[in-house]
Automatic annotation (TrEMBL):
Entry similarity comment: Belongs to the LysR transcriptional regulatory family.
Sequence ranges assigned to domain HTH lysR-type in this UniProt record: 8-63
Native organism taxonomy: Bacteria, Pseudomonadati, Pseudomonadota, Gammaproteobacteria, Vibrionales
Taxonomic source organism: Aliivibrio fischeri (Vibrio fischeri)
Entry superkingdom: Bacteria
The name this protein goes by in its record: LysR family transcriptional regulator
Record InterPro entries: LysR-type_TF_proteobact-type, LysR_HTH_N, LysR_subst-bd, WH-like_DNA-bd_sf, WH_DNA-bd_sf
Positions in coiled-coil regions: none
UniProt GO BP: DNA-templated transcription
KW Transcription regulation (keyword) present: yes
GO function term, MF aspect, one: DNA-binding transcription factor activity
Length: 300
């Protein structure tokens, strides 16, 4: 089958429209006119026989077919970029400012021990780490990439690479358990002081699987809720209550007895850790080497 260059061009334009959020911005980014962008999207939809975008004067939204097609386009474009980078990247030295967003707890427990090695390997890279548990807008806020922890990523306009999987653990300090007793079943949690996490949609509900394979959804009203996972862990260590955090936030707290794991026989939420970056951007040598370094040293 002959290669259809017009089809590939249409895929690139379609991806640019989705990632930039508008026809106007896509035109500015690509150097074309808005009318040209609109016409090319129309041709693409006609060729495919489906509508890819719901568009009004103010909004742009993918249809289910558009969502599926966008994912495929992203993969093909990324493969093409990687093929080019395999040649041109050999001449590109990792250097310059690398702006990375990362959750606080993950940075302190996992990144901190290995960052010295990275900076020794790549002395021409200036690593700017923004530690915040909120979900940032990578493109609008000028980040090169981000590390995100989630059981499911929502932003389809980003390329993601999963490098680690972690279970959630329910924990308490020995002092807390000595004063208040240890709950033997998740159903007893509402009788205890709990520490909540603000950036999890289901933060007020802790899910478990019981010994019969049935789901348990425990509704909680935490007395303290924080938007910082490191603060959450610190409060737990201080005996302020029971909390649930991803296991990767812990270093040796369980092994040394500073914390006690509860409900180990009740499976809990599994959390994936991703590296994500804007799909419309060329993956520079500095981003590529950082992602490869993280995968090598922290990947499962």
């Amino acid at each position: 089958m002959a290669f259809n260059s017009a089809l590939f061009d249409g895929m690139v334009i379609f991806s640019e429209v989705v990632t930039s959020g508008s026809f106007t911005q896509a035109a500015l980014n690509s150097g074309h006119s808005t009318s040209y962008i609109s016409k090319e999207i129309g041709k693409l939809e006609e060729r495919l026989g489906v509508r890819l975008l719901h568009r009004t004067t103010r909004t742009l939204r993918l249809t289910p077919e558009g969502e599926l097609y966008f994912q495929q386009c992203q993969q093909l474009i990324e493969d093409a970029q990687m093929a080019e980078n395999a040649i041109t990247g050999q001449q590109e030295k990792p250097k310059g400012r690398l702006k990375v967003s990362c959750p606080v707890g993950f940075a302190l427990s996992r990144l901190r021990p290995i960052l010295g090695k990275f900076t020794d390997l790549y002395p021409d890279i200036t690593l700017e780490l923004d530690l915040n548990d909120r979900k940032i807008d990578i493109v609008a806020e000028g980040f090169d990439m981000a590390i995100r922890a989630s059981h499911q990523l929502e932003d389809s306009s980003l390329i993601s690479r999963r490098f680690l999987r972690s279970k959630a653990v329910t924990i308490a300090s020995p002092d807390y358990l000595k004063k208040h007793g240890a709950p033997l079943h998740p159903n007893e949690l509402p009788l205890h002081k709990t520490i909540g996490y603000a950036y999890v949609k289901q933060g007020a509900v802790w899910d478990f699987i019981d010994k019969n394979g049935q789901s348990l959804a425990i509704q909680l009203k935490s007395q303290v809720i924080t938007n910082n996972s490191f603060m959450e862990l610190s409060l737990c260590l201080a005996g302020q209550g029971i909390t649930r955090i991803p296991h990767f936030h812990l270093t040796d707290e369980l092994e040394t007895g500073k914390l006690v794991e509860l409900f180990a026989d009740y499976p809990q939420l599994t959390i994936d850790i991703f590296m994500v970056y804007p799909s419309r951007k060329h993956m520079s040598a500095k981003v590529r080497c950082f992602m490869d370094f993280i995968s090598e040293h922290l990947g499962d």
